[in-house]
Amino acid sequence: MSTPAGAPADAPATPVVRARNVTKAFGHVEVLKGIDLDVAAGEVVCLLGPSGSGKTTFLRCINSLERIDGGRIWVDGELVGLAERGGRLHRLTDKQIAAQRRDIGMVFQRFNLFPHMTALENVVEAPIRVRGLPRAQAHERARALLERVGLADRAGNYPAQLSGGQQQRVAIARALAMQPKLMLFDEPTSALDPELVGEVLSVMRELADDGTTMVVVTHEVAFAREVADQVVFMDGGVVVERGTPAEVVANPREERTRAFLARVRAGEAG
Amino acid sequence: MSGPQPPREAAGEVAERPGRIEAVEVRHPWRWVAVAVIAVLALMLAHLLVTNDQFDWGFTLEVMNQNIVLRGLLVGTLFTTVCAMAIGIVGGVLLAVLRLSDNPVLAGVSWAFTWFFRAVPRYVLLSLTGGLGALFATGLSIGVPFDFLLTQWFGTPQLRLLSIDQQALYALFGGVFGGIVGLGLSEAAYMAEIARAGLLSVDKGQHEAAEALGMTKRLAMRRVVLPQAMRVIVPPTGNEVIAMLKDTSLLVAIPVTTELFYRVSQIKNQTYEVMASNMAAVLYYLLATSLLMVGQYFLERRFGRGYGASPRRPAAAGVSLGPGGAK
Ligand SMILES: Nc1ncnc2c1ncn2[C@@H]1O[C@H](COP(=O)(O)OP(=O)(O)O)[C@@H](O)[C@H]1O
Ligand SMILES: [Mg+2]
Question: Which of A231, A180, A228 is closest to A37 using CA atoms?
């Protein structure tokens, strides 16, 4: 939705993500217990929280990899996974869900590159097959993206021939190739050897500087403190605390947040 | 000082550092014994093949050159193998996809198909398909199902597009076509299990990565999952092709006579050159199987892309790459 010309300048822009009272259970286990979140265009939101607190599940709900049981999520003003017609909610078909996902990039903890395709083929696949971009244009764009993540010279390599950090950077380029309005990162550095974490984080930092709207699940507190506009601390399926990094990371109000940060920092020091 | 003294070299008192190792390799005397035994056995076999007058290699070659034998090889054996495997592979992958689908009805249909066609022996199955023509006394048509009821009740004209009369059906099912149908359906049941194992071998993260990029389930299956599953599917499929090649000798149950072993047997029964005739068939089966193995090698290489060591240098990529890199 674009604001009509002449609208007051202070009219609130549509948030890229708006989540209200999102609930989700696996069987009888309630994993998300009413999550709210707003992500404005160009904003970087970091989700922190102990393992099992529901961060991954919430992220996956945003692009319908999981189906929510209650609440609503809108991406760019459009209801995710549902459509309202004649006063009733209808589930979207697989095809319609696929169409919604085109505008949402996702980067996984375990990279999930396509192992039978080279780095370049990984990046051009969706633009050609899903967006219908002409080959030449897709290749040109893919090369530029690989260059941007510092892997121009690795275009012809298969994932198995790349280090973890390189694979994750290809995965970021692959997601960016669809020119998404929103990028989701699920612990993108957790599967990496410590000396490879920096190269991935610095690519993400550049994306943030370029105004990419990002939701990042991470245990990298330093990254959250320096890059995030908003930090959300989750525990047990609820948002415990949220605010700027200066509030949540530097000066947590909640005991649970403090305990978590202390544990993570002890881990980093050790 | 107690304890053993380190050797003087290790203490660094002698300047020379250990150099290239010139050691005697481990010897394997039993390997040589085995080679000797096998050599003797091989010689005995060769001697038998050359001197025993049951083997008449000239006659064998003559049999191999007979037109009816060549036609049998081409039509009944090779053509049937290719067509039945095509049905088997396409059908098997479809059955596997159905079996793994969320729709319980489709999954059940797939299960029932596999159950039936794996349970019935191929020889029996072929004599069934050979007689299928008899099922349709009034021929077979493609059109609106149960249109004869509509005609009866409402007097509407028959709604049929394509009709085959019974004569043609008899000929069709009683020939190579019937054999291809029987063997193909049977093969689909086996291929379904092979394809299912292949599809299940692909990590769930691959489906998710593809779908997160906006691919539909179908596109993800075709472009991401199936190509990876092929790596697991191809080797056992090679076995299946070879087994199929040999099972074409069951076409006699249809009965189809334009088939390699049937034709060879005809000559055998007329000439009583049992060994020499049989060897004609054996040599053709060996030859065909060898060619299939070459084909399999190339297929495995194609679908092993990305798992071996060598980087790909696609023409489009242009960039020259070092192997692997330091990391
Ligand atoms: N597919 C699933 N089936 C059942 N339980 C799940 C599934 N995925 C996640 N869970 C459970 O949901 C809870 C939250 O998981 P997750 O969202 O992965 O947490 P986090 O990412 O914060 O570590 C965990 O208790 C986990 O065991
Ligand atoms: Mg997680």
Answer: A231
